[in-house]
Structures are given as C-alpha cells and as structure tokens.
Amino acid sequence: MILGRSESGKPPVEPLTLKILVAGGFGVGKTTLVGAVSEIRPLRTEELLTEAGRPVDDLSGVEAKNTTTVAMDFGRITLREDLVLYLFGTPGQERFWFMWDELAEGALGAVVLADTRRLEDCFAAIDYFERRSIPFLVGVNCFEGAARYPADAIRRALDLDDHVPLLMCDARERESVKEVLVGVVQHAMTQAARHRRAVTT
C-alpha cells in the first residue's frame, strides 16, 4: 500500500467533526441516548443520588432513578466517512447548569430530549438555545407506559417555532437516535445557509 493512501487507492479522507449537545430535564434519557449510539465507550460522569439531594432533585416520574450526570456525557459517532459527531450530554439538574455555557462553546446544534410525562422539564433547555441562537431539534423520548400525543399537540404545548423540528424517538435504539442526530445536523446546516443568505442580501 502506498503511504498515505487507503487500500482502495484513494487518499484518506479527513473527516469534518461537529459538536452536538444533548440537553433536557433530569432523567429524560440523555445518558442513554449517548450510550446507545456512541461507537466508543462513552465517558460518563454519573454519581449516586443521595438523601442530601432529595430536597432539590425532583424525582417525580423517575422514582427508580438512582444516579445523575454531574458534569457531562461524551460519545462519538461516525455518520459518514467524512462526517463525525462528538456528542456532549449536559447535566439536567438546575444546580449543574453552570456547565452549560462551557459545553455549548463551538456547538453546531443541540438535541433537546423531552418526556411527555414532564414536558415542563425541557423548557429551560429550549429557552437556553433560543436565547443563544443555537439551532436545536426536539426529540420526544417515547418511554414505555407514557401517554402518546400527536406531534402537533406537543409542539403547541412547548410553544415551538414552526422551523424547529420535532421527532419521536427511542433513546435506547441506535437507529432511532441516528435519525435524530441526522435531523439536527440538517436543521443546523439549513439555518446556517438561511443566515448567510440574509447577511448577503
């Protein structure tokens, strides 16, 4: 093999790497989503929930949860030979939100995970990305036993702008998560192109 070339004879492709945030409320499935799709062993910063945290951690709807992300989750997925996504899961609890600004630095876009049993828990993430003009997509994590609602009804409940994509997903299923990630990349690229046109006209 010629040095610097693959077995096919083509020069190696230097992939474009993009940073995507995965945000949402406490216990919505962010760690699960990153783990389901990452091609490397995900980095997790989970700690056990303690009695001391009970007054500030709302476990309504996630009573069985016994760990929480205190810094971030990190994973990587190659969507194509020339496109790699680095995934950063944000902590969901309010007392760890100071991490968000640092994690958001250089992000192409974000996935806001939502749970129909606790929709209000994703309002903070939606507000955060809207205020900073970071393109985002809402992924409704379809938990077993949770009521199913039409996408239009969820969109109205979240007061989403028409251009914000909303997809139903299963954070445990690799192909479902890949569909969400492709969606947020496409949305971010569309928003960037729209911004460029607005600047040049």
Please give a structural write-up:
This protein has 201 residues and is α/β, with parallel strands linked by helices. Helices cover 28% and strands 26% of the residues. It contains five helices and seven strands, in the order E-H-E-E-E-H-E-H-E-H-E-H. The protein has helices spanning 30-37, 100-104, 123-131, 151-158, 174-200; strands at residues 16-24, 43-48, 67-80, 83-89, 109-114, 136-141, 166-169. The protein has a seven-stranded mixed β-sheet, with helices on both faces. Strand 5 (109-114), helix 3 (123-131) and strand 6 form a beta-alpha-beta unit. 31% of the residues are buried. Mean pLDDT is 84; it is low at 49-57.
Strand content: 25-35%
**What is the count of helical runs?**
5
Helical percentage: 25-40%
Shape: globular
For the largest beta-sheet, the strand count, sense and barrel status come to:
7 strands, mixed
Multimeric state: single chain
Key features?
alpha/beta, 26% strand, seven-stranded mixed β-sheet
What is the topology?
Blueprint: E1 16-24, H1 30-37, E2 43-48, E3 67-80, E4 83-89, H2 100-104, E5 109-114, H3 123-131, E6 136-141, H4 151-158, E7 166-169, H5 174-200
Parallel strand pairs: 1-4, 1-5, 5-6, 6-7
Antiparallel strand pairs: 2-3, 3-4
Brief rundown of the structure:
With 201 residues, the chain is of the alpha/beta class.
